[in-house]
């Protein structure tokens, strides 16, 4: 899936670190310059941001509320992962917190 599409669909949330240009080029079988040019175009379109040696990350997009929710979702995902919570269970808990019903293992508080 293209990075632009993954960002638009929410599959890649704000703050997600992207592969290095060299790693992505190798994975896709493309020239490094082709991937570098694509990253530059994505950065020009404000879809990604490069933070020097730290790498490239998905940029916060949309309205201020949307950007804040993207950041909160990324923090939630990072925290769930650090706690060793299965992604399906984490989603069930988030759905319950939003009042969207509960799944297996989710208990609203």
From TrEMBL:
Protein's UniProt keywords contain Transferase: no
Alphabetized Pfam families for the sequence: GntR (PF00392)
Gene3D superfamilies given in the database record: Winged helix-like DNA-binding domain superfamily/Winged helix DNA-binding domain
Keyword Protein biosynthesis: no
SMART domains according to UniProt: HTH_GNTR
Sections of the chain in a coiled coil: none
Keyword annotations of the record: DNA-binding, Transcription, Transcription regulation
Ranges of residues in domain HTH gntR-type: 1-61
Entry's transmembrane regions: none
Signal peptide region: none
SUPFAM superfamilies associated with the record: Winged helix' DNA-binding domain (SSF46785)
PANTHER family per record: HTH-TYPE TRANSCRIPTIONAL REPRESSOR YTRA
Protein name in UniProt: GntR family transcriptional regulator
